[in-house]
Each structure stands twice: as C-alpha cells, then as structure tokens.
C-alpha cells in the first residue's frame, strides 16, 4: 500500500484531500498538533502523527516510508507578524524538505498561493512568468520564499511541484465565509470600490484534484496556477456565496483610496498599542479583496491535465446541500 504524509490535514484543504487519498487506497499519515486535530484526521481515515512543523522527530516519524508528501500547512492570518509567518512558512518548509530528502521521498507537492504575485495593483490574466517585485504583505512574501525552496529542491530523484490557488472557497469553509458573516453581524461589511472588479476563485474540490494530479503529472520544479475556470465579479460572487447561508450582504461601499487610508491608520493603531487579533481592515485585505486579480491556469490544464471538476455554479449548489 502506498504511503503518503500530509501536513495541514485538519485544515480546510486537508479535510477534503485526506478522504480522496484514502479512496485511492493510500495509507495516509497526517501531522496533527492538537487533540482536536488528531481526532479530526483520524475521523477522515488518516493515521495521526502528533507534533508540529518545528518538531523534527514528528516529521521523521510521519515521513518514514512515505513516497509522497503533501505540504498544506500554512497560516490563515495575513496580519500575523513577518517573523511568525517566516517561521511557519519558510523555516518549517526547509525542515520538511530536509527530512523528506533524507527519507527518499519521491514527490513533494506544495500548496502555494496565487497571492505570491500580488503587488497592490490590479492584475489581469497573469501566468507563471509574471513576477512581482513589490509584494505588499508578509504572508505572500513568506509563501513565495517557501515556494522557492520547494522548487529549487527539485531533482531527478525528488520531484517538487507547487499548486497556486486563488481565493479558496467551498462547503465547510472555516476562514473567508465566517469572517464575512462576522463583519456583516458587526455592521462592518463594505465592498471596496463597489466590488465590481473581477477575480478568479478556487473551489476546495478543484484545489484537491489539482494536488492529486501534481503527484503523478506535471514537471518537477514548476509552479501551477489553478482556478475554477471562470472570472467572476467580486461583489456578485460574495453575495451569492453568503446567500447560500440565507444571509443578505449590505450594499455598502468604500473607495479604494479611502480603504487604503483606513487600513494604514488601523494597522498603525494595532501595532502601536499592540492590540490583539487583527483590525477590521488592513492593507493586505484591501489588496486581496479590493483589486482585480486574474490568473491563467492554462499551464496546469496543459501539463497536469487539470480541468474544472466543480464549476462556481455547482460549488454554490453544494453549499446548500
């Protein structure tokens, strides 16, 4: 039986990927750092490996005899300090790569992020050749640095690939949807610039299918954008996404310039007074949710054999089931 090792198994993507791996007949070992995470990955059919990404012993135990590593673990907090993000994304990935090579792992599939090209400007139809010199947030900078480590580690004996999804959404979303619902509840929900810009999205089921394809297909040392295969107007998508929960989104808006000013002021206050959590609006949020962001997944369709497994319409219908 083929063995694979997964990090971030109790996260949104991991909870959807583990059942697919089990269905393929794989023996799945999943790193889990909390009692809740241990129970979650076990309930999905995986063998729990207690520990975190800084624990070399846990990584050694989990990777032993694995042919493939799926590295999904990442921060979901764009406002975390650069040091925290660097430790979680870059240092942890370096350690995991080291242990994977020691254990003669054949394939290393990294869950990257489309935001590694976000530069605070509208982006239209970017492919993998697009490079930004001015990444505007620590999350994207550290995800890019980690991805570079992964791709540079590629060799004839050790295939490494990065999958770059945009905004990940779908049934069971524990991140974006709850944040929007909370903002609506607090009366803080406003679209930036009217929300009329277009974006691409990545349904969690499409992301998982792309990860599976990367295990056997594609070319090592490469990154691949993946999308749901269509462009959507941000405001329309968010209204329909939230609408699956029977909630209406207020039709309020703030200009992009005002949003950036408010975000800068809020970041200053939060950092100056060392307030807990993150402000209602910060620069990374403005750049992520307030600007056109279109990437092309033509390379993934051509080289991985990727296709849209779940359309936006189908994904929204699944939210209601």
Automatic annotation (TrEMBL):
<protein>
    <submittedName>
        <fullName>Nucleoside-diphosphate-sugar epimerase</fullName>
    </submittedName>
</protein>
<dbReference type="Pfam" id="PF01073">
    <property type="entry name" value="3Beta_HSD"/>
</dbReference>
<dbReference type="GO" id="GO:0004029">
    <property type="term" value="F:aldehyde dehydrogenase (NAD+) activity"/>
</dbReference>
<dbReference type="InterPro" id="IPR051783">
    <property type="entry name" value="NAD(P)-dependent_oxidoreduct"/>
</dbReference>
<dbReference type="GO" id="GO:0005737">
    <property type="term" value="C:cytoplasm"/>
</dbReference>
<feature type="domain" description="3-beta hydroxysteroid dehydrogenase/isomerase">
    <location>
        <begin position="6"/>
        <end position="248"/>
    </location>
</feature>
<dbReference type="InterPro" id="IPR002225">
    <property type="entry name" value="3Beta_OHSteriod_DH/Estase"/>
</dbReference>
<dbReference type="GO" id="GO:0016616">
    <property type="term" value="F:oxidoreductase activity, acting on the CH-OH group of donors, NAD or NADP as acceptor"/>
</dbReference>
<dbReference type="GO" id="GO:0006694">
    <property type="term" value="P:steroid biosynthetic process"/>
</dbReference>
<dbReference type="InterPro" id="IPR036291">
    <property type="entry name" value="NAD(P)-bd_dom_sf"/>
</dbReference>
């Amino acid at each position: 039986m083929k063995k694979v090792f997964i990090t971030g198994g109790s996260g949104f993507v991991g909870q959807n990927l583990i059942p697919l791996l089990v269905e393929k007949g794989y023996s799945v070992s999943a790193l889990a750092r909390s009692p809740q995470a241990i129970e979650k990955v076990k309930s999905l059919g995986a063998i729990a490996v207690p520990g975190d990404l800084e624990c070399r012993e846990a990584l050694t135990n989990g990777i032993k005899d694995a042919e493939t590593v799926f590295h999904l673990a990442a921060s979901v907090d764009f406002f975390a300090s650069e040091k925290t993000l660097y430790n979680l994304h870059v240092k942890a990935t370096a350690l995991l790569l080291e242990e994977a090579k020691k254990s003669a792992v054949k394939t290393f599939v990294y869950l990257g992020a489309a935001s590694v090209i976000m530069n605070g400007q509208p982006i239209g139809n970017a492919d993998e050749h697009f490079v930004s010199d001015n990444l505007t947030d620590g999350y994207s900078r550290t995800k890019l640095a980690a991805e570079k480590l992964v791709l540079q580690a590629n060799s004839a004996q050790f295939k490494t690939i990065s999958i770059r999804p945009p905004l990940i959404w779908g049934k069971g979303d524990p991140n974006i949807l709850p944040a929007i619902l909370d903002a609506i509840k607090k009366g803080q929900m406003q679209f930036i610039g009217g929300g009329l810009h277009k974006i691409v999205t990545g349904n969690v089921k499409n992301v998982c299918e792309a990860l599976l394809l990367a295990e056997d297909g594609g070319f090592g040392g490469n990154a691949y954008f993946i999308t749901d295969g269509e462009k959507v107007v941000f405001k329309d998508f968010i209204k329909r996404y939230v609408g699956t929960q029977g909630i209406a989104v207020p039709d309020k808006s703030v200009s992009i310039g005002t949003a950036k000013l408010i975000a800068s002021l809020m970041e200053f206050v939060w950092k100056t007074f060392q307030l807990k959590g993150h402000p209602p609006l910060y620069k990374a949020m403005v750049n992520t949710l307030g600007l056109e962001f279109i990437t092309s997944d033509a390379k993934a369709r051509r080289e991985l054999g990727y296709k849209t497994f779940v359309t936006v319409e189908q994904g929204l219908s699944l939210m209601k089931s």
